Amino acid sequence: MISITLDGAWTVKNERTGTTYPAVVPGFVQKDLTEQGVLPNLYDTLLEEKIEWVEHDDWTYSRTFRLGPDSLGAKRIELVFEGIDTYAEIELNGKTIARTDNMWVPVRCDITELAQADNELFIRIASPTRTLQEKERQFGDPLKLWNGIPARLFGRKAQYGYGWDWGPRLVTVGIHQSVRVEAHGGIRAEKPVYQLPFVSDAQALVSASVRIANTTGSERTATINWRLLDGDAIVAEHAVSAELAPGENRCAAPLAIANPKRWYPIGYGEQPLYRLEVDVSAEEVHSKSACTVGVREVRIAQPYDEQGRKFVFEINGVPILCKGVNWIPLTLYPNLDSPQTYVEEIEAIAAANMNMIRIWGGGTYENHAFYEACDRLGVLVWQDFMFACGDYPDDDDFCALVRREADHVIAEFGDHPSIVLWCGNNENQHFIVNSKKNRREGYGERLFFEVLADAAAVDTLRPYWPTSPYDLSVDSSANNESCGDMHYWHVWGRTHPYEDYASVNGRFLSEFGMQSYPSMQVLDAVDPEADLRDPKFVSMQKAPNGLQRLLYYTAGDYRLPASKREFVYVNQLMQANALRLAVEHWISRMPDTSGALIWQWSDLWPSISWSIVDYNKVYKPSYYAMKRSFQTPNVLAKIAPGSGQAELFLIHERGDFQGSIVVELYDIETETAVHTEQIEAVGTGCRSTRVGQIAIGGHDPSRVVLFVHLYDGEQLLARNSYLLGKPHALRLKTPAFDIQRKETADGEEWTVTSRVFAKDVWIADVSGALSDNGFDLKAGESRTIKLPRDAARDGVQPALLSLNGVASIGYV
């Protein structure tokens, strides 16, 4: 087969003004116009009114391309579009050859009769907003939603483009995936798929199949060779002859792996990957394709208990404590991320002791490079279908459109072992139940409980979950602690104090979060002189009453700082305090609670949001707090407000553990331990175990801090510190640090030594993940931190902060 890429330089024309611009494919109109200075850059946070006109206009992409004699002499020539966003008419050499209506479904066009040596290609993309508003008018019934405009519900394009509570309205228009010409002999094998009908330690059966398109116009005899490889070694192969009728054919093969290597999540085992190859030969015509095979079994165990029913992911029979994040697209331009970017992001997630990513349903199906990185690193993926926060139409045409999308997504991405769940949507059950007050079936009920469920039923490699949150009832939208998964938003959403997290006993917390400001590096890139009430900063906050809530939660933990920089610092510490309390409560309950997925991983523009990594890739204190809380094995302390006891929990979710816990109550005024105690730490099974308690009553929370240490023999495995009260009560001494900086082969090291107890030592404004940050130091203690190579960005130099050095206003 000859494959000719058409990626690269194109031209795009505004059909209203007649103006033409250079364009890049894959890409988007708004991205090209921003880079050419026609639109403001994304640090202009008042940009929405300046860019909205783009989504209301029609745009035409065009280019020419040449085909040589070898291509023109092929039996079949096809033009392939991996993704167009969204409503396009494709014209080649003056003839319309296809129309598109779904940004996630590729288009393959037969151009054998139209192709010539010199070709002219036009892609006319209609205004998505005008198109969707017309669909909304034709549907007639009003649909309800959170975020964006109701018309978005009628389109199969990334929903977040119409604006969300963490990002602006930027409704993309473009060709966001690769374009190519394929010339071949009329026989084409699609990507193979497989099932695992039987897996044991001795053998794994792989049931493989492939669709083969015969476009020669006549029946062809073909030999189909299957190979399953472990690296370069062939572990199974199978050959069969078949008669390929004109049109689509499906051919299957049984393969067996002796003594299979099983794929496990990070920390639970290795991540071996096999490669399944199929080679179709029909006379002189050959077509090859391949996919990844990961041998693992997945199920969600939901046994009954006194509380209701558990919700536990089991991989190869092992219960998994799922610790991780919710994922929104990395930028406002979906699917343009490089493989290296995906690797860096997922490596940082794994480095924070996280093992699951939930891809949220208002974004996009990510590129293969994302899932490949998760496969290699052992990071589990909860994959939503792309529906979020609203009523969705359920007429026959829309259901058929969604079924084609689901069939494609499951076939295209289902080989990745990291994907362990298909989920129908994000938070639509609320809308289904509300709409059932006025109709027999709620809007979307048919989509999520029939259409997508039927599509996912063919995939036996992972379960399907119809909606999130979900409590096993079609007629309930309750966030139910007794069963299913739960989104908990009374903290933040209803302004409950974050201490309420400790009273929530859900079975799997798939969404919860606390906001904070981004780093000063981001704020200064927007405007270094503006105060936090400046419209440029206010526009970065898309959540209703968000600024008031940030002040409420921050003032609850801290005295109000006298400077903008220090307010941002303590506001970010507050986010870390809230998330830490939540996750440590929930992971201490394993297996009664078996998952905690933070909303959200990162920002896609200069947001004030729930992210733990900001737009400039500065990792917030929450990232490092989660890294410490999620490590394993671990020892955690739970201190209820007003309680005279601290409960101690051993986290050993990967199996049995025996060691010791050393507890120390440390007086920050005298810089001495006032009480030390050693407790035996024994836990059996994959769970957490309550191992005891320590008396804290009578100790002054303004001067005594609790340290807990977990040892395996003499080896220190984990060290965590806890306050007995709120941080605003601490009587901290003036900071006194000694800092040694050293250049290394892969970056820079800082060794920080404190001469007094130092609270929340923070190296600020560094892009990229540090080895550690945001930690407490006792007097005389040192910590060495590895900084990434590019620690200084755009002239920003790292600065050392601590709560000790924060000057507050005098009357609060």
Automatic annotation (TrEMBL):
Classification via InterPro entries: Beta-gal/glucu_dom_sf, Beta-mannosidase-like_N2, Beta-mannosidase_GH2, Beta-mannosidase_Ig, Galactose-bd-like_sf, GH, Ig-like_fold, Ig-like_GH2
Gene3D superfamilies: Galactose-binding domain-like (2.60.120.260), Glycosidases (3.20.20.80), Immunoglobulins (2.60.40.10)
Keywords for the protein's UniProt record, in alphabetical order: Glycoprotein, Glycosidase, Hydrolase
Enzyme Commission (EC) number: 3.2.1.25
Annotated Glycoside hydrolase family 2 immunoglobulin-like beta-sandwich domain residues: 199-296
Top class in the EC scheme: hydrolase
Superkingdom, taxonomy of origin: Bacteria
Pfam families: Glyco_hydro_2, Glyco_hydro_2_N2, Ig_mannosidase
Any GO molecular function: hydrolase activity
Beta-mannosidase Ig-fold domain: residues covered: 734-791
Residue stretches making up the Beta-mannosidase-like galactose-binding domain: 10-176
Catalytic activity: Hydrolysis of terminal, non-reducing beta-D-mannose residues in beta-D-mannosides
Family (UniProt): Belongs to the glycosyl hydrolase 2 family.
Name this polypeptide is given: beta-mannosidase
Gene source species: Paenibacillus xanthanilyticus
Lineage: Bacteria, Bacillati, Bacillota, Bacilli, Bacillales
